[in-house]
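Revision sheet: structure tokens.
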Amino acid sequence: MINTLEAIAAIIKNFTDEEPKLKLHVGEVMDLWTAFTAFKEAHTLYQVGLNTTVDSDLKSVLEEALNGSLSDTKRIEKFLIKEGVPLPLVYPSKPVSDPSAVPEGVKLTEDELANLISVKVAASITFCAQAMSKTVRTDVGLLFFSIQVNLMKFAAPLKNIMKARGWLRVPPAYNPPGSPTTTR
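Predicted:
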């Protein structure tokens, strides 16, 4: 347990140490650019979901996801602009539409939407961890860390809804060879 606590203390110390203002390195810029683009694409997914779902719980989750992602994306945008990094081209927001006006063969089911969002959030959490581990600048690391925490706070309620509705995709149980429950 001491080794774990020492590791956590070292990580926190790394993020709180004052450092001279360093220029962003190419990896930090690329990760910030990628996150900005991916989050803008997620906005489209959330907006399409809001335009197609009639499930009130899923609609609430989508609204929370969109609002949180808009906030995180704005933080990245301000950071990139402050650092003089040009923003990537992104798609405009989707207009609001009536879910009943979308044909059944075109819109995603609530199950499909929830799983698509879940995968996007899981990938974003992993991406933030990788980006954070590559940063040299403390402010970039803290930005990715705070976004990752926001994503994790959102992921738990989404998973609970998915479990309750039977939408959660669970891989088969693994029984290692030789375990008492293995059948031949």
